[in-house]
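Issue: copy button drops trailing tokens. Both records pasted manually instead:
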Amino acid sequence: MLLEYNIYDNFNPNTMRYDTIEPSPGAHFPRGYPAPKARGVILDYELFQTGYEFTSTGVLTTEAKVGDVIEILTTQDNSLAQTPDKTISQKLSLWYVITTIDDDNKVVLQNYFWYMIEGSSYPTANIYGYAGTFWTILTGSLYPQLMLWGSNANWEETNLELKFNMEADTVEAKELATSLFSKIQLQPVTYSYDLFNLKSPGIVVGLLTNEWTRQRKKFRLDELQNPALEKIVITERSQFNFINVFVKDSSTQQYPSRSKGYTLDDNDNLVALNTYQGDGHDLPEQRTVKTMFYDKEPTDAQIKSEIMPSTTVSKIYFNQIKLYPIQVNDLVEIWYKGIVYRGYIADRNFTPNGERLTFVEGERG
């Protein structure tokens, strides 16, 4: 599959944010990105649409430099439902930033969104509420490395209340984004759009799919799709069976001098030591202790999750199904070797020999 690209100078927000268009007196909107400085064909490529797991690579046929923005042009459909009644139809472009380039013009590419938020952090005390709030933090509350003209999200998909308990006072934007997208089973889509109807498109990031209400797609995998199954540990905690918990006092913003202790009994029920009335024979034979610090009172489920055995999920890589094309962010149910897996498509890998998809098991929330 032959793919062309457009290449641009870095979309530097230091200057682009102040380059505005005034369509009417008093109305100022940021001008879109400029025309490309070069166009070429990318060779020997491996291009990941979302960058969920990997960076991308390829060989360019024109000159470029580190920091340049590159748009990979495809003929694939990239319809996006922006509202229940409005779906835009356009061809899929893949947007990256060049992070390294060698003497043979081989480049390493980082997806635009992930490069944009790199280096940013946010106070953990302000991280609470709904998924849509966290998306706003990532796309509107931080000064990013790249120019962003706008963001949007399916408000029904992001109307999901989430809670993050984190030990540190701050969290890196990439860590917050990874956790958010895992919980809502949506990866960000980066696309070009004339947001202000000025015939001057800019880069927009969205938590969107080709349908407003996602319908779970069901299919079977066989050897034709060359599936590869992996088990990944999403929460590693099997070495602990006892936890000391410190919760910050909301009035003083100080931690108490004494912790609360929790463990699990033989039936994996959470046991609070300060109310335990047994003789200890239903508790672990040996303690393996960890300590957690919380800004807000954690739920029993959150405490229990820290001392339960490790949680693993399945990840399946497989070739695109030509008669039943699958897209990024599709909710799916897969039959493979007699087992049913439910989850979503987290990434799509383009190579000269075809497409390969990344399935991640799990449920929303």
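Record 2 (pasted manually too):
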Amino acid sequence: MALLGVIAAVARPATREWIPADATGWLLFTAIVFLPIAPAMGTAGSLARIALGGAAYFLAALDLHRQSPKYLPWIPTAALLGFLVAAALLSPVSVGYGLLRLMNWALFLPVLLLHLQDRHARNAAAGLLVAAVVQSVGVALQMSGHLGGVWGGIVVSGEGYDPSSSHWMKRYTAFVANPNDLGLIYCLTLLVFAIVLAATFQQRAHRAIRTVICSAFIALLLFGIQLSGSRGALLGIAIGLLCASLAATRPVKPLLAAVVLASAALLVLGRSEQGRVLVGSIVDFTNGSDVSADARQGNWLRTVSGSTSVLTGAGFGGYSFPFRAGTVPAADLNVSQTVDNSYLKLVLEAGVFALMALLSLVGIALARAYSSARSNESIFRSVVARVAIISVVVMGWRAFSVDLFDINPWNGYFWIALSFALQSRKFGCRAALPLPSKGLGVTDRSGHEDLEERADAHSPGPAHRAVVPQT
């Protein structure tokens, strides 16, 4: 909170670049901040989520009326939506259940139709930072005993899971009500700061203060990930940094950021017993001796072996319907109502062609973002593209071990990140790094902060830059 106060104090004249100025900006900002809070609000939160989804449909209809989104791959998008509709109508549980699941899948799908601009990237980045801060307030309330919902988890001492001889790490859930979701929010926010830190080495002005601010936030977010006890979030950081390095024109820059990040990790995680246990559990996870991972794999194999309609899918809820109907022993119910794998779940419910449509859409988005990330025309475009890449990849990787695509808040976050990836070529006419600060860049002729500088000495001069009007 103190760091936020410092940034707000020095960036006051530039805050208009980050505060939403139109309906699309407000939708992105509000969705990113509010969706993780919705679980703590119960029914009111669910109704507010539906209202946000309705606003997305309304704004998408307006944008579609004004201009056709030529950037959108219509064939895989329409195919995916068609397979999801079919899965809803063919649900063996009930049509009502199927339509409810369809709503969860498609609630924020219209974000793909929104025409995004530079300021919307800033609005989304500001929303993610505010979301992390809000969730940190929830963690503080849980640590002080004013908010419940703390989970147990990894064994800290003792053998096995015997309550008489061992105790568990406290896993804080904040307002999102799930420690893995909390860890992933922190992971994505941390990766944004890591990308900004890497881009800082391409800027000449005030490099030291940017490095200090980014490094401080990275350390705080690492501490938050430790409190969540999420191994997936820690592995997500490594995957995100790897993707950012591969997408960079000068890989040494993200690698320098990775060195700072690794140093912060050692300082934060090495100072507590729980941090060391969390890192140790990742070793168990990677060498195949983790109980949780083994249970998931067994569940996947058991579910696939019992499925008879992988090609076409069994409809929403179809793979778990025998358990719902009571034809399978109740003892198996807890591990069989979900497969904890979003891709396998999509195949079992909507068929393999639905998975192919989703992967095609994601592949096109990543290819475009990769091309934009390696562009020398704009540092801002490269930053937005790399953030979009790591967001899509990290959430996509996390989907291998949890339900994600139709679960709040990721059914909003994923489509937002995918939309930025699909439209990444549009960004970077007049741009700022996603870290507002007065005096940290050069000033354009209108007096606005402009952190755009030349990516290398051979890139086109100012006279050859494409000019896109800022509204």
